[in-house]
Amino acid sequence: MAMEVATPAFAPITSPEINIVLAATAKKKASVETHKKNRIQVSNTKKPLFFYVNLAKRYIQQHNEVELSALGMAITTVVTISEILKNNGLATEKKVLTSTVGMKDETKGKMVQKAKIEIVLGKSAKFDSLVPPVTNGKTPEEVAKAETEAAVEVQEAAATEA
């Protein structure tokens, strides 16, 4: 006996109240998607503090801002990362959000409330003068040498064609 799988057909919604809710949900979903590329979810147990500091520097360099996020006991780590970046003149604080999130406790199996923090840091005016550009592991001298050699090869190739 073959089973039929029904695919949902979307009908136009006529109630303005529902449209408002859907618009807000769609807007929220879009904003979440844009923040994922520069969001760092910090953990106390997975990586050392300066791993997150250096990762945040790179995200600021690439995206001009970074969103640091943590739950529970990792909140102090996020605040420390933020303060290190601000005190070194690399970042400015844009936004701080605190909230509680309902989660299922793994040991007891019941719902518990966890504190959550999100800190958005922007690129400071001094950032580019303090942090060297990313060169894929090469020193600035190696990058300059490679660029010079490439330019010489182009000129030699042009000279042999002429």
UniProtKB/TrEMBL annotation:
It comes from Brassica campestris (Field mustard). Transmembrane segments: none annotated. PANTHER family: ALBA DNA_RNA-BINDING PROTEIN (PTHR31947:SF19), DNA/RNA-BINDING PROTEIN ALBA 3 (PTHR31947). InterPro entries: Alba-like_dom_sf, DNA/RNA-bd_Alba-like, UCP030333_Alba. This is DNA/RNA-binding protein Alba-like domain-containing protein. It comes from the Eukaryota. Residues 38-100 form the DNA/RNA-binding protein Alba-like domain. It holds the Pfam family Alba. GO terms for molecular function: nucleic acid binding. Signal peptide: none annotated.
